[in-house]
Amino acid sequence: MERKLGVVQAQPAVFDRFFFLLRRTAAWGGGLSLQSRLRLAGFLFVLPALIHLGTFKFYPMFEAFRLSFYRYDLMTPPVFNGLKNYWIIWENPLFHQSFWVSVKYMFGVSIPEWFLALGLALLLNRGMPARPLIRLAYFFPIAMSQIVVALVWKFMYHPYGLVNTLLEFFGVGRINWLSTEETALPALIAIGVWRGIPLFGVLYLAGLQAIPKEYYEAATMDGAGPFQRFIHVTIPLLLPTILLVMVMSLLSAMKVFLNPLVMTEGGPNGTTRVLPYFIYETGFAYFRMGEAAAASTVLFAFAFGLTLFQLRVLRRGGLE
Questions:
Q1: Which residue in 25, 223, 288, 319 has the most C-beta neighbors within 10 A?
Q2: How far is residue 241's CA from residue 108's CA, in Å, rounded to a whole number?
Q3: Bridge-partner residues for 80, per DSSP?
Q4: What is the pTM of this model?
Q5: Crossing angle for the helix pair 162-169 and 146-156, to the nearest 10 degrees
Q6: CA pair distance 154, 250, nearest whole angstrom
Q7: Helix (H, G, I), strand (E, B) or coil at 82
Q8: Which CATH architecture has domain 86-319?
C-alpha cells in the first residue's frame, strides 16, 4: 500500500516538471513572432506522435531493410552478404507462390468491397426507419477482434458447421472448405469481404452525405434521371473517397496474416500461404531472418508502387 501511495504522490512531480518544461520553452520563444510561436506550439503538440511513429514504425522499417542485406539466424551475429537474400527468395518457388496467392487474395477481396460497400452506403443514405440501429448492426463485424473472427469462421466452415448445415438444407452436399485446394482461398476471401464492407461503407456514406443537395436538385431540374445523377454528380464528387477506399482496401488485404495463420496455417499445399505468412514462417520457423526481411522489403515496395499507381490513374481520371 505504501508503495502504491508513493507512486501516486510521485505523479504530480512528473507533471510539474512537464509544465515547467513547457513554460521554459514558451519563455525561450518569447522573442519570436506570433506565427513562429504558433508553429512551435503545433510542433510540440505533434512531437509525441512523431516520436511514437519514429520508434515503432519508421525505425523498425529501416532495421528490416538493413537486415535484408545480412545473414542472421537469431543465434549468431549478423553477417553481411549483400543482395544474396534477395537472390535466394527469388529462386525460392514458395516465395513466388505466396506472392501470387497474396495478389489473388488482394484483388479477390478488394474489388467486391468497392462495389458492395458503395451499394450499402447508397442504400443507407436513403431515408429509412431505424437507420442508426442498422448502421450499428452492419458496423459490428469491424469492431470484433480479428482473432475472434477467425476462430468463429473456422467453426462455421467446419464440415458440420453452420455453413454446411445451410447448404445441406438447400440440397448441396457438405464441403471441406478449409481442407480443399479449390475452396480454401475463396473461403478466406469471403471472410475478408464480409469484414471489410462495413468499414468502407461508412467511408462511402460520409462522402455521400458531404455532397451538397443543390447539385442533385439542379441536375433534376435539367431533366437528369437517377442513373444520370449517379454518373454525373455522385461519382465525380465521390472520387476522393473512392481513392481512399481503394488504397485502404488493397493495403489491408495485402497484409492479411491472422486468418491464414489461425484457420489454415497456409494450407492446403500452400494455397492460402500469403506473403506475410511466408515472411513469418521464414523468419520464426526456419530462423532465416535476413531472407524474411528481404521478402518484407519486396512486399513494402509492391504496396508502395501499387499505391502510387492508383494515385496517378485516378488523378488522370479527374480527381484533381
A1: 288
A2: 20
A3: 70
A4: 0.82
A5: 40
A6: 24
A7: coil
A8: Orthogonal Bundle (1.10)
